[in-house]
Amino acid sequence: MKLKILFSFSAIFMMLSCNITNVATKEVVKVKSPKNVILLISDGTGLSQISSTFYYKNTIPNYTQFKNIGLINTSSSSEDVTDSAAGATAFACGVKTYNGAVGVADDSTSVKNLVEIATINNVRTGVIATSAITHATPASFYAHALNRGLEDDIALQLTQSKVDFFAAGGLKFFNNRKDGQNLLNNFKENQFTINTTNLSDFSEIESVKKVGFLLEKKEMPRMEDGRGNFLSKAIELATQFLSKDNSGFFIMAEGSQIDWGGHENNASYLISEMIDFDDAVGKALDYAKKDGNTLVIVTSDHETGGFTLAAKKKKRKDGSEYSDYREIGPTFSTGGHSATLIPVFAFGPGSEEFTGIYENNDIFEKILKVTKWRK
Ligand code: MG
Ligand code: MG
Ligand code: ZN
Predict the structure, then answer these.
(1) Cα–ligand 2 centroid distance for 29 (angstroms)
(2) Is residue 242 a part of any domain in this protein?
(3) Which pLDDT does position 10 carry in this prediction?
(4) 85 falls within a domain
(5) C-alpha to C-alpha distance for 98 and 100, rounded to whole angstroms
(6) Which residues in the chain show pLDDT less than 70?
(7) Any idea which ligand is nearest the CA of 219?
(8) What is the C-alpha separation between 325 and 310, in angstroms, rounded?
(9) Measured in angstroms, how far is the CA atom of residue 332 from the centroid of ligand 2?
(10) Range of the domain at 235
(11) Backbone dihedral region for residue 314 (phi beyond 0: left; psi -120 to 50: alpha; all else: beta)
(12) Is residue 27 part of a domain?
């Protein structure tokens, strides 16, 4: 109830302030449409996770480059606390759905996703993740499944999908399946070139129609186990590959494992993944600045771990405890997700649209509004 009152007050205030602005300037502000959209999702990342890059990264975080910042409520249709499938489906398809749903609405019907919509608009598409490509977040951008656990089925849908470029782990869902099929053959039928060893240079893939990198059986390695610059490099390669015919592109790239660091209540795992994601943000911003026609949106499906950057707890000689404000001792309040509001950062043409406080599925509507892609 309190929340409703707050929202209606802010709605009235916004209406008033819009009118005042209109009277004062007497002009309609035209928003330039971006040709390309890069949506970066850091799974399980709230403000404390983002803040950690300010204390643990050796260089200035790329997050500091954003001017247009908003907040989203991430609740799913069924629960206050969302899971990654419902969270990603809200972004990819524009609907709030039940936890576990991949690209389907509350009534289990399939809902068109951003990859399908981009394709209708002759815009090329890329999906990148540091998890398996069949995991809930990337899956919601190209597949429709009643439950996120149906990864064999999700894999089959990828081979038939409109995705032009993908890079992630998850090879076993294609070549070591319960049904015995080898889906690497199915990819060929849909004009995909598949590489299972390493990210190539652009020159090696320049002439192929569609390309997919499946570089691990399951997820990609942790940063702490030597993943290197896979995420940044995949984003760079995708922008090169998808911009080659100048038709515009949509890329979703996920830092998947920040969430897993949160579930493990493992601060060094979480922070190392977070720093890698910030590098990827920098890579996307570099492209957008050079190109001038690219909208970059950086957000998360939810927070994980109830992570905080509390002052480090220490013990005095007499055994009593105190908080040492000179040092951070990261702490967690849960092994699961939390319902805290999540920041949205936007850069480039249309980025003004992403300020304010709104719902997670509004991200989808805002992307369509600024790009003018038809459903
Ligand atoms: Mg998640
Ligand atoms: Mg995820
Ligand atoms: Zn999670």
Answers:
(1) 36
(2) yes
(3) 52
(4) yes
(5) 6
(6) 1-31
(7) 2
(8) 8
(9) 19
(10) 37-313+322-349+362-371
(11) beta
(12) no
pTM flag (> 0.90): yes
Triad 323, 324, 326: Cα angle to 5°: 145
Ligand nearest the Cα atom of residue 301 = 1
Task: Supply angle C-alpha 206, 288, 164, rounded to 5.
Answer: 35
Cα(268)–Cα(261) distance, rounded to whole angstroms? 8
* pLDDT score recorded for residue 144: 98
Q: Annotate the chain with three-state secondary structure.
A: CHHHHHHHHHHHHHHHHHHHHHHHHCCCCCCCCCCEEEEEEECCCCHHHHHHHHHHCCCCCHHHHCCEEEEEECCCCCCCCCCHHHHHHHHHHCCCCCCCCECECCCCCECCCHHHHHHHCCCEEEEEEEEECCCHHHHCCCCCECCCCCHHHHHHHHHCCCCCEEEEECCHHHHCCCCCCCHHHHHHHCCEEEECCCCCCHHHHCCCCEEEEECCCCCCCCHHHCCCCHHHHHHHHHHHHHCCCCCCEEEEEEECCHHHHHHCCCHHHHHHHHHHHHHHHHHHHHHHHHHCCEEEEEECCCEECCCECCEEEEECCCCCEEEEEEEECCECCCCCEECCCEEEEEECCCHHHHCEEEECCHHHHHHHHHHCCCC
Q: Give the integer Cα–Cα distance in Å for 323 and 60.
A: 27
Q: How many domains does the chain have?
A: 1
How far is ligand 2, taken at its centre, from the CA of residue 208, in Å?
Answer: 28
CATH of the domain at 93: 3.40.720.10
**pLDDT, position 31:** 67
CA–CA gap between residue 133 and residue 157 (Å, rounded): 11
Measured from the alpha carbon of residue 302, the closest ligand is: 1
Query: How many A from CA of 338 to the centre of ligand 2?
Result: 15
**Residue 137 maps to a domain:** yes
- Check residue 11 and give its pLDDT: 52
Distance 87 CA to ligand 1 centre (A): 7
- Cβ-contact 247, 35 below 8 angstroms: no
Ligand 1 mean position, distance from CA 151 (Å):
16
Which residues are within 8 A (CB) of 355 and not within 5 positions of it... i.e. 6 or more apart? 68, 69, 70, 346
What's the longest Cα–Cα distance across the chain?
A: 72
Distance 136 CA to ligand 2 centre (A): 6
Expressed in angstroms, the distance from the first to the final Cα of the chain is 34
